[in-house]
Amino acid sequence: MNDPSKEIDLKDKSNSKHNEKEKEKHKSKYKSEHKSKHNEKEKEKHKSEHKSNSKHNEKEKEKHKSKSKSKSEQNQNKNKNQKNQNQNQNQNQNQNQNQNQNQNQNQNISFQQIYFEETSKQTQISKLYQFPKQELDKFLICELLSNYKIMFQNEENCDYTIYVGKNQKINCHKSILNSRSRFFYEKHHQKSEINELYLPQFEIDIVKPIISFLYDSEFEFNLNKFEKYFKLAKCFKLTNLIIKIEKEVSEQINEKNVIIIYFKSISIQSQFLSNICERFIQENIDKIIENEYIGKIDDKQLKEIIQIIQKTKSKEKRINLIWKLSTEWKNKFNLNNKQFINQDEYVDSIQIHKIKNQINQFYMIINNIQNVGFISYQSNPEPNLILSSNEQFQLLNQKNQELNQKNQELNQKNQELNQKNQELNQQNQELNQQNQKLNQQNEEIKQKNEEIKQKENKIQNQKNKIYQLRTETQKNLFPKATKIIQNYRKKATNLNQKSIQETINFMIKCSTNQEIQENGCFILQQFALHEKNKIEIRKLNGIEPIIKAINNFPNNENIQDYGCRALENIVVNNEENKIEIRKLNGIEPIIKAINNFPNNENIQYIGCKALLSIAINEENEIEIRKLNGIEPIIKAINNFPNNENIQYIGCKALLVIAINEENKIEIRKLNGIEPIIKAINNFPNNENIQYQGCGALLNIAANEENKIEIRKLNGIEPIIKAINNFPNNENIQYIGCKALLSIAINEENQIEIRKLNGIEPIIKAINNFPNNENIQYQGCGALLNIAANEENKIEIRKLNGIEPIIKAINNFPNNENIQYSGCKALLSIAINEENKIEIRKLNGIEPIIKAINNFPNNENIQYIGCKALWNIADNEENRNEIRKLNGIEPIIKAINNFPNNENIQYIGCKALMNIAINEENQIEIRKLNGIKPIIKAINNFPNNENIQYSGCGFLMVIAAYNEENKIEIRKLNGIEPIIKAINNFPNNENIQYSGCGALMNIANNEENKIEIRKLNGIEPIIKAINNFPNNENIQYSGCGALWNIAANEENKIEIRKLNGIEPIIKAINNFPNNENIQYQGCGALMVITYHNEENQIEMRKLNGIKPIIKAINNFPNNENIQYVGCGALLNLTYHNEENQIKMRELKVIELFIKVINNFPNNEDIQYIGCGFFRNMANNHENRIEIRKLNGIELVIKIINNFPNNENIQDYGCGALKNIADNEENRNEIRKLNGIKLIIKAMNDFPKNENIQKKGCGALLNLSFQNDENQKQINEMNGIEIIKKAINDFPNNPKIQKKGKLIIERFQKK
Question: According to the record, where are the ARM repeats (predicted)?
Fold first, then answer.
């Protein structure tokens, strides 16, 4: 029987989600022989921020807080002396740090010159020279560094070794180290022969990322190791990396890790991080106290946290937080010690006493902390925040009364313990004596504290006298100062430095005089209009008196107006002045001015303008929010809806402030979005308001909830109108498209934009400004986001929006952003079937291919380009077009160029999978060596489910209908990774499907069948079918795979041993209406039972005959199912008596007669039918049944209809031979001219041994005891034909035996 194995052509699609990336690190091991010694001075040179003297004093004071009231006055004096010494030391350290920083800044660092020397065979990289005066071209440097990066990864031309850890090393380039790190430059400048460095105290996972940073300035950050990164970066003197690490850490601070990061930042001396942590702890201390980590800190760390809490402004909140924190810590400490005491029954009384003594000492510390009086006057720079002694005792009494009841119960238990433990009582008496002495000392300390208070009162009285004298001098100075300043005001724009200095001095000295303050603010406002004067005012300390004037005279409109104007003029285009105003708390008075004069348009306008100018600084944005400065801007816009200036400047201010994420949220909470929308609607002809309003909505919309709010407030429509109303204004077109881009990230907003006809103006903007890169980029990006909605995809096509995207890609081939957003837009649009066709018609496939080719090193473009081709290739004509435009090769290159990029590997496999559905493309992919990188991808990412799925899917498609590809996959060892994928992801339905499908198509090759068995590939297929009984795709591909694999004798046996027959039968039973599964299942059973008796028996035992019969009955018009079903039944009857009987009982003979009659022109079915009758007629009762059902006539008809088909003639003669073993049947065959057809077949195919053998057997049976048959055989020259057969096949024993028997039978007669 011919091999009936088949293969499939898969064309279905899947949209599985991307899994998170997983990277494998392969570490090489080497032995290190030396240990490095570090210079401690070098570690201290690169501190990111030096500590100020004031903060240092506070820290030192907090470290030496009074530990208990029992300490003597001498100890306090010693602590004060130590404070002074530490302050002096810290001041010296700060000076040294400043000197080191100045030295670093003064040195002119530039890249070393890099050049190449051409040689006959290869280009060699020469050594780098030491710091030339002029820097190289930045583009050349970036290109060379990227080359070095590749060589570093491949360890090519490395001339420097860094030994790390215990047994590892890193190979790199000395030239890069010298040019990028001052540490290496100084080290090698002195000794250029050094080519190695030993860092045994650092592991390779710490050192390698930092060395890699020297090549490309990219750094993979791990929060758990940041202190090690920080130390090594300081060692290598990498200031930029230190700043980057601090920034990364600061962005990941939360309630759970802030305490750990805080103490680590102190240990590595990072003032920046410690300040951030302090601020975070102050703002979130309530949540931090609830953290379990609080119970793990020691008493010193507890004091540090309390010192941070002290800096909060609210007195009551501060006290409550300290009480709560210390109580929580004390409870946990007490619980831990109780557990320690109770855990061992044999702890003696002395140990218990020691532990209790230790607990008492800690209780003294905690009680001192909880007693608010511990915040002494000396350690607190703000005496006003301290409670009086009466208030302290009131708070303590209230809380002590609550604890007294519990203490009484504990005292009773303690008395019982004291009676039993006499030794402990004696020791307690001694302790009591010591406590009495301490109490005496405490009384002495109280007396001295009273003396200190008296001295303080005297100092305060002296200050009051000084203040009185100062006010008297000011009164005398007022007339003179007033005249001078009035003269200066008249010529304010022409004043010199001395005049300004005198004005500032008068403002400082005459701070209570309104007229002087007003004129002074006016003069400084005018003076600050010039750029140089802004700097001069700051240097002359002129900013602070302006701020004081605004604060001191909150009801004077002129001072508020002039003051805000002065501050606004001072900060415009001057970054240092912005910072200075924040440091001097100058933002708050501006906010107060706006709040205090809500009806004064000038103050509202200039106040908002001042906040706008100040807010162009990241820290100032935050400060404005914290000072509640956003609300007055919103109120100003609301209060003056007809004032264009306020509307303009208010929207612009919110635009800048909204750059900060928290500010975006704050604006929404304060209902600040609506007034912006109203401003755009109210002034449709004001280009400035339209631009600033759209810009504000753009920044605000970067927050997801804000996007929704803008839609609810009907804020999308005015943006669309702005784009429509000002078609020639490039700025509005740009900002409008960008705003819609951001808003359209939300799904409902995408629908809203379409309903408001917002797609068309974006398309027009792209068309109207073909040379404006920004508009092209933002427009393509907007269409990209909008196209995430299916109806929008259709709308974009109807509005001819695909063509401008293609033009943008073509017009700016060197603009990476446009290439990326354009390709991504086409990717999204191409999900729609008609859009795929439109893109091809508009020649949109070629620019995508060019983008991939033009930016081979841009991972984003490679990924998006391949993904776009994947979507577009889901169309037969597009697949042909991609091949014609040479679009297959760049996909293969992308996969090869980025072997470690999981996304590119995944999407590249998917793109080639779609493209390979076309047979010509399958050939092209093989010619371009495209099969090998896919197999590599599957091997390189064994844990990535997406790559395993798409890789197996590609191999499934590429192997379909292409014999050479099947062979190529085997030669490239591509079968094994498919099997591994199926085994590694037994629960992933997609991988099981594509893996089984790949093996199904690959197995349609004899050598591949054997290879699959050797690699144990049959078992995972059987498991897949069993594990997913309800998945039609897996049942289909699994049965198909077993069908093709079973076309090998050893494989048939292996399938039975692995219990692979039963799941095929179950698949046929479970999916009676699925034609594909019925076809593949019956086909598999047909091949498995072919000439294998044990498999035939196994089939009968598993009731496998009935589902085949059902399949034939359920799909009477499906020729394929009829063919394989009948073929399976045919094979089951071969030399198997029990199956033959079972078939008769199940009325299979009638079924076959029906099938043969339904497909009279199908030679395969006719051939199988004859074979079936041949096998069934081996049974006596079956022979009779065949005659009764007119089966003899049907066999003779088949032989007569296909005289040129040797197989049919062979099986037909065989059927008549077996049927003729019955007297009535012999007569029936003669009557139906069956003898004539047998002799004719032998005559027509004299060289066919099977036909001759079966013809002789048939004539032998027909001539048995039947004179009429003998007569007919003789008349038709049957004896001569038999004699010829005997002569032609002398080596065939059956022909010789049967032929001679016939001749003897006729000779006797």
Answer: 541-578, 671-715, 757-801, 800-844, 843-887, 886-930, 973-1017, 1016-1060, 1103-1140, 1147-1191, 1190-1234, 1233-1277
